[in-house]
Amino acid sequence: MSVAQRITSRNARFQQWQALLTNRNKRQRAGEFLVQGVRPISLAVEYGWPIHALIFDGSRSLSRWAQELLRTVRTEQISMAPDLLAELGEKGESAPEVIAVVGMPADDLGRIAVGDDFLGVLFDRPTSPGNIGSIIRSADAFGAHGLIVAGHAADVYDSKSVRASTGSLFALPAVRVPSPREVTDWVGGQRAAGRPIVLVGTDEHGERDVFDFDFTQPLLLLVGNETSGLSNAWRELCDHTVRIPMTGAASSLNAANASTAILYEAARQRILAGKRGSAEAPRQG
């Protein structure tokens, strides 16, 4: 653990970190992003993400959590003036206790584990980083194994996405890909290895209702852009499409809400299938 440095002015390092909040290109070049909050930082540490630095308010009495973090995480420590820390925290009212500078993993589909029970989500050209974070949170909550963000899209590591994920970003692999080709090659490799992943698109005019579809098979759920839905390229790749039956005046749900509803149905079916399997298993003895 290095001795804490102190930053009290908007020097070059402060400006570099500030740029990570709003400038995607600078985040990508630096290979790092900012994280705040007890749960997100704790999960980043728990899941082994590289912590490049811990920035804290050296003028206040830190909580037991913050003290333990600074004591146990071997990384550079930066003591920062509270007004500057508040700027990096984007809250406006008060400075966070600690901000972590976290390294980005490679955008490698190999990070997503694929087993016989695989459940993944692909988000096609999302425009809202908040929706990306919300889908990561739902995917994590309902047992998915990874998220793929495809095409020209908002950034997984945008501060709005990181906040909306409430730490699930660090538990669930989220991989960015430029086009369908990378995914079709990956799915083809998985199928050749004996894992028959089915591609299921979400569409308000889908071929069947979500509760009439078998979500217990290895599956990649394709979610369209918030405005235009799935692109033609992704539609053509779908093995099936599903719809969420709705009543009332709403014609559709936003991408994050629709994904959450379908992931819940997938989790429900898988839990029921597991219970049936346990009940039908022969007794030992």
Explain how this protein is built.
- The protein has 285 residues and is of the alpha/beta class.
- Helix content is 38%, strand content 20%.
- It contains 10 helices and 12 strands.
- It has helices spanning 12-22, 24-30, 38-46, 64-72, 82-89, 129-141, 159-164, 180-192, 232-237, 255-280, and strands at residues 5-7, 32-36, 51-57, 76-80, 98-103, 119-124, 146-150, 174-177, 198-202, 208-209, 219-223, 240-243.
- It has a 7-stranded parallel sheet.
- Helix 1 (12-22) packs across helix 2 (24-30).
- It is elongated.
- The termini are far apart.
- The mean pLDDT is 92.
Classification by helices and strands: alpha/beta
Write the H/E string, N to C: EHHEHEHEHEEHEHEHEEEHEH
Low-pLDDT segments, ≥5 res: none
Cross-sheet strand order for the largest sheet: 8-7-6-11-9-12-10
Number of strands: 12
Please tell me how large the radius of gyration is.
21 Å
Overall shape: it is elongated
**Helical fraction:** 25-40%
Mean of all residue-level pLDDT scores = 92
Strand content: 15-25%
Provide a count of the helices. 10
Please give the largest β-sheet.
7 strands, parallel
Separation of the first and last Cα atoms: 55 Å
